[in-house]
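Entry 14. Two folds queued back to back today. First construct below, sequence then structure tokens.
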Amino acid sequence: MIEIATSLLNVKEEEVIRKIYDLEVAGTDYFHIDVMDGKLVKRDTSETMRKYAEYVKNVSNIPMEVHLMVEDVENYIKSYLALEPHMIIFHYESAKTDAERIKWLHILQESNCKIGMSIKPNTPVGKLYEFLPYLHRVLIMTVEPGEGGQELIPETIEKIQELNKFTYENGIDIDIEVDGGINDKTAQKVIEAGANILVSGSYIIHHENMKEAIKILKRK
């Protein structure tokens, strides 16, 4: 089953509560909160995304996933756990050592929050294999993180295929999520490669009929 996580990254603050309601009606499966610190990636969305996450917590029953594109992962995890998100995803590249990554995984394991790890386009997917037993989801970035509305990098599809093949051959049950440039033209490609959760922002938010946009991405 294909699921859709709608990114609120490019929603204007004065419109966000209405968009949350409308997206719930439209059938999004998750709200995707893109938290950036201006260090791991150039853009800083920390304050805005915190507000948006609080709005989702207060007005919606749709699960929320928090995508941390930050350096100080531990403090951000502890901060967002207070909002009881469905999932927190942190970047492999945020840590300098595996010991740091394991520490963050343990913090999340002690909560009721599901765990995801993400990689940028230039990071080999094999870097994640040793962590798969800890994870519920792998998020493969199909654009360079930091800005919405980018075009999908074609080479990243091979990483989806590689991860899908590895998990199948090793009997690992895990969601493969993709984020970046997902629209009516690219959705089928990443689904065929093995992804089952698609993050989309601009395509859904700017579509004249968000419910129809979500159906198109799900290939219904």
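Second construct, same run, same settings:
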Amino acid sequence: MKVKFCGAAQQVTGSSHLITLDDGYKILLDCGLHQGGKNAWEKNNIWYFKPSEIDCLILSHSHIDHCGRIPQLVKDGFKGPIYATHATRSLCAIMLLDSAKIQERDVEYYNQKLLKKRRKKDKKKKHQLREPLYTSEIIPECISRFIGYSYNTQFRVHNDVSVEFRDAGHILGSASVSLTIKRGDVTVRIGFTGDIGRDERPILRDPIEMPEADYLICESTYGDKEHELPPAQTDKFLSCLHETCVEKKGKLIIPAFSVGRTQEIVYMMDQLYNAGKLPKIPVYVDSPLAVNATQVFGAHPECYDSDLSEYLLMDKDPFGFNSLTYIRTVQESKELNFSKEPAVIISASGMMNAGRIRHHMFNGLEDPKNTFLIVGYCSPDTAGGILRAGATELKLFGEIKQVNATIAIMESFSAHADRKEIVDFISNHKKTAKKVFLVHGDKKTQEKFKVYLNDNQFEDVEIPFTGQEFEIG
């Protein structure tokens, strides 16, 4: 039996891990898109396996860096079932359609630029015209392959393999994946944490401990950090909002993932509004995907924690208050850029590498009254990562923009567990795990986390590279 690491190996995006059984049956854990960086296109056009040979896909959750290559997998020959939680299936229906539209727009923009350069006879540029990785036409076929299962329910994907999802507390429907594999008289247990959430975060239940495993594939996004506590988070957020919108009369612009982060911020502001602590400033959610995702959240109360369930008794709409407006049309979005009034604008994408946030950056980065509040992980080579690193200028839509706005960072909103929270989550594996594979993290972070794990009684820790394969069992 083998495990091969086909993505999110010594990097964060592109989650994909292949398990090959003794009889050749192939199980793919996640099929995510590589995001950010000059080489993302090339990475997304490489498979470390033949899609037609994959027998089934087990999906941990609906973030694009975990599910975004599913349509490409289907287009290139995959014909098997896709196993996920019910909420993950619901979110994928809108996430993958949005991703397809982004693919189409990005390729159209790239090709237009290339043709313009060719007309100028720029002989140094030898790039070929691109085609989208996939288009929206294939999404219905992808969704038809999904088979939904509830948490804490064992189901079979092969005569010798049973699977169980447990709530990972990361986003709506997110799950850890536990596989129990029979090899004659021997049983081998493989665990995949997916992305691990955090205790006592709003909206979702706390992560549920996984069953013990012999081999553990573990995320490591924040393996070198520990987050701020929630009380400090609210105070810091209010301080940032007051300074930007009340004192400087500027815009607080928040790049946020459409699924999870946006709903958490809106829910927090809803609570502040009801408590009379939110200044009378208009708040806009400028992301059609976030609007649709919020509706999906409303359809899956089985994922809510007890605090939100109780809050619903006094406020039937935790994702809406009087000064909040959800923006759908392009025209409404453009009007926000030309408005001079103080406002809070929440827009996707969270890494600032796609979506309407790019236009808010283009129009708002040079205004010193504005603040861009980064509330989650950004890959170093995305626009968000570049701004986090202290860049003084940024190229957007072919123009150089000076960074005169304030760049603020709040790690506490992260839906990823920090190093202590990860170790707490996997603590029951200390005696059982023969090997821990670190994925979904930058290499430098993983090297620090490996030392931290060793110090916490995890002895055999591997940091696999992309394409590396291990014999297990």
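Quick look at the second one. The first strand starts at residue 2 and ends at 7. The mean pLDDT is 92.
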